Amino acid sequence: MRPDPKYVVGIQSCAAGLMGLTYLFSALPCDTGMAFAVVSHIKMPEKFHLSEILARFTVMPVVDAVPNMELRENHVYVIPKDAHLYVDGSCSPLIFLHGKTPRKRTQLNHFLFSLAKAVGSRSMAIITSGVHGDGIEGGKFICEQGGCLFFQASSVGIDGKLRTVHHSNDSGHAMQPEDIAQQIKDIASRHVDTNKNVFSSPESLCFPRGQTF
Predict the structure, then answer these.
(1) How many CB atoms lie within 10 A of CB 153?
(2) Which of 98, 132, 130 is nearest to 114 (CA)?
(3) 91-139 pLDDT tens trace
(4) At residue 114, what are phi and psi to the nearest 5 degrees?
(5) What is the DSSP annotation of the chain?
């Protein structure tokens, strides 16, 4: 039986953050034991696929997410633009399923809420650029469940609402993509595997229940 991923990382992607995304995966090791789900806001030309682009920057398998797909450790899953999928934690391994159609521009929030409910403190969110605030509420909920939240520092795509949230309460951590990759590597190295699925995370990167933006 394959082990569940140590953590599941939800990553926001849009055109403005694509370069940061490639830097992130270039710097990530291939053996963190985590699953990475990229929620795409990118409208790609028909002959291009985001999964194919990302596969050039990591040795981890990169696949397009579809309903009823198991989440495996050391894999990257690309959720296509306007695809409405969520994580179901009622069974193991985790599975992508069709969800109710979320409001416009809330695809990442929809996914992050389901992720936090499914795996709690084993959830992470990385926001590489701002798309009308999508991801803010989902990131908040991940923090409340003890998960980790990262922003790409100095991204031209991070909109005013996202900047206001970050600076108002020190929620999340603003870093360059390579530094986020290093933090993920450090978290993976601190992970404690037991039969009871107990996870250990650095206090400086995880947030207590009840903390809000």
Answers:
(1) 15
(2) 98
(3) 666 777 776 555 556 788 888 999 999 999 999 999 887 556 677 788 8
(4) -65, -35
(5) -PPPPS-EEEEEE-GGGHHHHHHHHHHS-S-SS-EEEEEE-----TT--HHHHHGGG-SS-EEE--TTPBP-TTEEEEE-TT--EEEE-SSSS-EEEE-PPPPTT-HHHHHHHHHHHHHGGGEEEEE-S-STTTTHHHHHHHHHTT-EEEEETT-TT--HHHHHHHHHH--SEEE-HHHHHHHHHHHHHH----TT------TTTS--TT---
Contact predicate 43/36, CB 8 Å: no
Strand pairing partners for 126? 11, 150
pTM, to two decimals: 0.80
| Token pair recorded at residue 57 | 């920057």
Give one DSSP letter per residue of 78-122, joined into a string.
Answer: EE-TT--EEEE-SSSS-EEEE-PPPPTT-HHHHHHHHHHHHHGGG
Q: For the segment 132-190, what is each residue's pLDDT rounded down to a tens digit?
A: 667 778 888 998 899 999 888 765 444 444 554 444 444 577 888 999 999 999 999 98
Task: Report which of 20, 96, 28, 13 is spatially closest to residue 59, judged by C-alpha positions.
Answer: 28
Q: Which fold has domain 8-190?
A: Rossmann fold (3.40.50)
